[in-house]
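Try it yourself: sequence plus DQA, in.
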Amino acid sequence: MTRVLVLNGPNLGRLGSREPDVYGSQDLSALRVQLVDEAGDGVEIDLRQTDDEAELIHWLYEAVDTSTPVILNPAAFTHYSYALRDAAALVTKAGIPLVEVHISNPHSRERFRHTSVISGVATGVIAGFGFDSYLLALGAIRRTA
Ligand code: DQA
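Structure, out:
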């Protein structure tokens, strides 16, 4: 493993100012710094964010085509995007690890957040640890990839 795709869905580009009581006050560039530090030499962190479902799906195709492990925060798509689920299934069916992560613990929040249509096709799920959810996912990928 030389690269990990860290894919972030809608509204996560607003981290830092978006609901800091839920998501903290750090933004995605701070997350990138933490992941690069955790990854050390030899593993490239390719962190991206989009509000566009199609773009996220195409990045998952890229993961399949390049055999690249994925850390995925699907954000609100978690709860209803069957299209994203099907693309995530392509990744894991190809034997490539895909860890679903959440900054918050969706199960302790509104009822609509209790359902993830992604979890059933993910390799594993880590939620509720703030940015540490991503760092833990990187550790999990290192053990499996
Ligand atoms: C989230 C949880 C989702 O319910 C929400 O829509 C998000 C962020 C999280 O990281 O805690 O946008 O995925």
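One thing you can check immediately is this: The first strand starts at residue 3 and ends at 8.
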